[in-house]
Amino acid sequence: MLKDWFAIQVKPNRHDVAKINLERQGFHVFAPKLVTSKPGKKPQPSNKLLFPGYVFMQATNDPVTWRKAGNTFGVQRLVSGLGSLPAVLPEGFVESIKANCGPTDAYQPRDNLSLGDNVRVISGPFQGMIAEVAILSNSERVGLLLEILGRVTRTEIARDRLDAVPLRDAV
After folding, report:
1. Which residue segment(s) compose the domain that 124 sits in?
2. What residue stretches are annotated with the NusG-like N-terminal domain (predicted)?
3. pLDDT tens digits, 28-72
4. Helix (H), strand (E), coil (C) string for the chain
5. Residues 97 and 152 in one domain
């Protein structure tokens, strides 16, 4: 039988409880995490949910399943679409996220930056500016060349504040 993916809102601080209880009932549950590091003298890895307050469940699309999942301990509700019916996630949505996850459901965003690439700064004081990648390292920051007041200035910006620019937009 064909199974669809649904988004489930979980109760506050009950993410793990909801996931375990849904799995006990035979549902396939996916809850991607984002591995970050806590700032400080000794950065430590920290797992945060990629979608806080939500998990994805793969199940058959029928009212018995919806009732069973909706009444699970830790679950607040199934996310609805039009009307009161649970919304089926678009085909390939969860699979595209899973493609970027490791075996522990840790999301690893693709970083296709190369030296000389043009990027757009998406937040911070340089928001909206286009810059050239000058330095790449294993850290969370990227060295950029920005044109400010007619002069090229070197700066470092966090990777999560950058977005790749297609060639046609870079000019």
Report:
1. 118-169
2. 2-101
3. 999 998 776 666 666 666 678 888 999 999 999 999 999 999 999
4. CCCEEEEEEECCCCHHHHHHHHHHCCCEEECCEEEEEECCCCCEEEEEECCCCEEEEEECCCHHHHHHHHCCCCEEEECECCCCCECECCCCHHHHHHCCECCCCEECCCCCCCCCCEEEECCCCCCCCEEEEEECCCCCEEEEEEEECCEEEEEEEEHHHEEECCHHHCC
5. no
